[in-house]
Amino acid sequence: MRDGEILRGAGQQPGGGGNGNRRRSVSKRKQRRKMNLLLMGILLLSGLLVGGCFYIDSLTYRVCYAEAGVEVHAQDFFKNPAPDAVFTENGAEFDIHIPGEYQVNVRSGLFSHKCTLCIRDTIAPRATVNPVELGYGNICRPDDFVSDIQDATTVSVVYEKAPDFGQWGEQDVVLLLSDMGENVVRLETKLFITPVLAELQWEVGTSVPTADDFTMAGIEKRLLTTDIDTSKPSRQVIDIEVDGVVYDSILYVVDTVPPVVEVQNLTRFTNTPVSAEDFLVSAKDVTTVRAAFAEEPDITTAGSREVSLVFSDESGNETKASAVLTLEDDTEPPVITGVRDITYVMGTSISYKKNVTVSDNSGAELQLNVDNSQVNLEAEGVYSVTYSAEDPSGNVSTVTINVTVMPMNYDVNEVYGYADAVLASIFTEGMTQYEKLQAIYNYVKGNVGYISHSDKGDWVKAAYEGFVKKQGDCYVYACTTKVLLDRAGITNMDIEKIPSKTSHYWNLVDIGEGWHHLDTTPRKDHPVIFYWTEAEMMEYSAKHGNSHNYDHELYPEVP
Length: 559
Prior knowledge:
By secondary structure, this protein is α+β, with helices and mostly antiparallel strands. The protein is built from seven helices and 32 strands. The protein has a four-stranded mixed β-sheet, with no helix packed on it. The chain has a four-stranded mixed β-sheet with strand order 6-10-9-8, with no helix packed on it. Strand 3 (100-108) and strand 4 (111-120) form a beta hairpin. It is elongated.
């Protein structure tokens, strides 16, 4: 015997004996019992699920009916109150104003339900029916006869039989109103068509329309309006009489004819502005014609190019045309003429551009520039002034001149002449000295404007500025008054405030009653310092910062 072999007794078969068969039979019976229990569990669970579904479905109405226009809520589908009911997004959207069937989805709590919403329209539309009056030549729609239509759905209005809009007079009209639920209402009304056109369009610039143009043929009529104007676009009310009845018609005088234009080709220099009007030779139209480019042309490069032009009248009618624009390079500078040296006298006026012009071969309007930054009109001397001009192509011309500034030589006799002319205009025969003094005071106050500075020390110059420039400070006022007083023969004297932060000048006058103060300079509080006594002047001065405080030892006593 080899190691590992097993001896088997007589009658024994390999693979086992009778006890093994009994064990297999018991195992199979157990398996069958388990299968049966599993099947019973499945059947029981299925029954519960089916029963639950039937219960869930029983919570809602499968189909709900609603009249069009009536609000529908999710809880309307539940048999029992469901305040938390909502429509879910996976259901169909519906419009309560459009009849039809909608598959909606509603939810309350954990469960959703599929339901059908049937919207029906069973109520016929209502409306107010109105008669219509039309002018001959017009038509109207069926819905022009009705107003205040009431229905939950869209309502259409049609003629049962279309009216005859070519026949004037009264007609019966039957309208059919039907809604989306196919409910139909039949309404009756009247249509009156006048024998006169409601409106007539007439071409501007043509002959005046006659009564026949406003009315149907074959009727007696008379045009009552006699001042019809067809010379320009307008809206006019025209009266026409037919069978003793007067009707109104609107005459629209319109312009529908585009302008007739003639254009020309142009040759210009580069960079020189060109307008659409430059291409226009003539334009014929009853209204004003405007020219424009369809697209702005390039004017920066030399050469020829076609330009598109649009000509429009006041009514918007357009005519399109084209022309050729040829551009050439420009190398010629502008020409400045009329330039000359200037002699300027201080105190007068100066004009640098008087009689000076600039021209250019391009035809463009150029700007003349004047550089006078080196000139001082307040100081004697000779100064340079440069004129310059540049054309669109960049060509520049310059011219330089000299400005000689000279002092003004003021002539006292010239100043006296101005004063005498003033006195002749303000004095009248028989005036007293007091009245003359009043006239002089009023003239200076009313004709000299105040500025805050002037040159002091030359009374002739100051008076000249008062008479000629008509402006100045207190020194100019006092000197202008002084010259007028002198030429009027009124005794006077200049008086000056004691110098402080400011200076001030006025006049003393004596017309036979002793010296009095006279101040023609305007002040902010507008006093009338005319023929004041010493007491009046000193009281005013004390109240206004010693405005007229003077050295009494230098002047005669003022009573």
